[in-house]
Amino acid sequence: MDEQSPQQTAPPLLSIVVPAYNEMEVIEAFHQRLQDVLAGMSIRSEIVYVNDGSTDDTLTMLRGLTSPTGTVRVLDLSRNFGKEIAMTAGLDHTGGDAVVVIDADLQDPPELIPELVDGWQQGYDVVYATRASRDGETALKKATAKLFYRTIQKLAGKVHIPEDTGDFRLMSRRATEAVTQLREQHRFMKGLFAWVGFPQKSVRYRRDPRYAGTTKWNYWKLWNFSLEGITSFSTAPLRLATYFGFATASLSFAYGLFIIAKTLLLGEPVPGFPSLIALITFLGGVQLLTIGVLGEYLGRMFNEVKHRPLYLLAGDYIAEAVQPRSE
Ligand code: UDP
Ligand code: MG
């Protein structure tokens, strides 16, 4: 861990990765608050904004940003790839001794960064921010989020995916490098972050409501996100299908024996058309469900074997520090 402890000579370089998709209403406020925080820390900084194919003026605004504590880099993705991939693009282009990933909408308070850095300086490789509250979110959103974390933890087994933890975190260089080595298309980042291991520490914070603009999430997207999480980190649904099949097959077999015995003992029974239909439709449903589960995994394998690059860059702009650090 020696190479990542702050050196006596130069202050450590902290990279900050900010994915941004249609965030023109907040980006300036965000940048200002981030600057205020960085100015109070004895570090050099490198801010990497990733414009995830925004359709508004986000890119133009990002390109106008500078920082006195270091460079501001703007990676422009060729289209909207989604937050998970935008973050990965940012992580790929960092050189800091430690890397912080933070949302642009000020839901992750930049003021927490010094605390994350403290954790890193104590020797932790991953310091993640855990929400103590979710202000401005509906009871339904809170309940579904809770259910999601419980389920994923049960299914993911050995990989510990911390609860109420988003992507807001600090990672040491070696943890960052480990994460960027994972090149799967289906990127359930919370899971990937957890998968790499290394000493981890949690810092609690209050998650603020969005500063401006709207969330890009809706329940359908969240549902798909949960499916992504479960299928990326667990094959339990495949096993469930096996057990379910086994259970129905055993029951059908027992039922078959019962019918034969009944026919032998009591003679030809009255044909039971309704029960026959019920049984056929039930089994048909079970089969379709099972095939669906198989399909989920097969589809993901299909996407992985194509080995496409995760993203394409349309631009890469770097603004040097506007003034030398005064000390
Ligand atoms: N984001 C992105 N690409 C997307 C959607 C979102 O880069 O396709 C960014 C967005 O600009 C923000 C962060 O990811 O910085 C979190 O997005 P959002 O606030 O919509 O998600 P929530 O906070 O509701 O989970
Ligand atoms: Mg948000």
Structural write-up:
The protein is α/β, with parallel strands linked by helices and 327 residues long. 46% of the residues lie in helices and 18% in strands. It has helices at residues 27-39, 58-63, 83-92, 113-121, 139-156, 173-181, 189-195, 219-233, 236-266, 273-305, and strands at residues 13-20, 44-51, 70-77, 98-101, 126-134, 165-172, 200-207, 313-319. The protein has an 8-stranded mixed beta sheet with strand order 7-5-6-4-1-2-3-8, sandwiched between helices. The mean pLDDT is 83. Bound molecules: uridine-5'-diphosphate (UDP) and magnesium ion. Magnesium ion is lined by residues 103, 105, 107, 210, 215. Residues 19-21, 23, 52, 80, 82-83, 86, 103-105, 107, 215-217 line the site of uridine-5'-diphosphate.
Summarize the structure.
By secondary structure, the chain is of the alpha/beta class. The chain is built from ten helices and eight strands.
How do the strands and helices of this protein lay out in sequence?
Elements: E1 13-20, H1 27-39, E2 44-51, H2 58-63, E3 70-77, H3 83-92, E4 98-101, H4 113-121, E5 126-134, H5 139-156, E6 165-172, H6 173-181, H7 189-195, E7 200-207, H8 219-233, H9 236-266, H10 273-305, E8 313-319
Parallel strand pairs: 1-2, 1-4, 2-3, 5-7
Antiparallel strand pairs: 3-8, 4-6, 5-6
Helix pairs in contact: 5-8, 9-10
The chain binds uridine-5'-diphosphate and magnesium ion (MG).
Uridine-5'-diphosphate (UDP) binds at residues 19-21, 23, 52, 80, 82-83, 86, 103-105, 107, 215-217.
